[in-house]
């Protein structure tokens, strides 16, 4: 192995999820703590705070159905993070990217390129993908 490859391997290892981190559990916990009050425990938009909001929270179990049957992972993560939001988003939806979304881990995109993603953001997107109605 070349000497230059060692720092790259060490950098990637630093971005890997911590040993013992259960991303499924972390995603469910992140949803319960940050999303369920508005989107509901079942993610269908009927949380206890939804009634008082100027814009009704959407049903998050139909994201794939509204996207031609494919879960829009990048879009979902950018909305949660606060990076990409249209005018139709309520100001009540916090920008979670301003807070601590955990250590960064590398994910591989469809183009084979690595992308750093905060661990808790990835866990939440995985959790939402698992809730999709088939």
Per DSSP E runs of 2 or more residues, the count of β-strands stands at 2
Number of helical segments with 4 or more residues: 5
The portion of residues forming beta strands comes to 5-15%
Looking at the structure, the CATH topology is Cytochrome Bc1 Complex, Chain D, domain 2
Number of domain modules: 1
The class by helix and strand makeup works out as mainly alpha
Mean pLDDT: 82
Q: Based on the structure given, which CATH architecture is correct?
A: Orthogonal Bundle
Low-confidence stretches: 1-18
Question: What's the CATH first level?
Answer: Mainly Alpha
- The helix content, as a percent range, equals 25-40%
Biggest sheet strand order reads 1-2
The termini sit apart by: 46 Å
Topology order in helix (H) and strand (E) letters: HHHHEEH
Shape: globular
Structural Rg: 17 Å
Q: Main β-sheet, in a few words?
A: 2 strands, antiparallel
Describe this structure in words.
There is one protein chain. The protein has 134 residues and is mainly α. Helices cover 35% and strands 7% of the residues. It has five helices and two strands. It has a two-stranded antiparallel ribbon. The longest helix has 12 residues, at 23-34. Mean pLDDT is 82; it is low at 1-18.
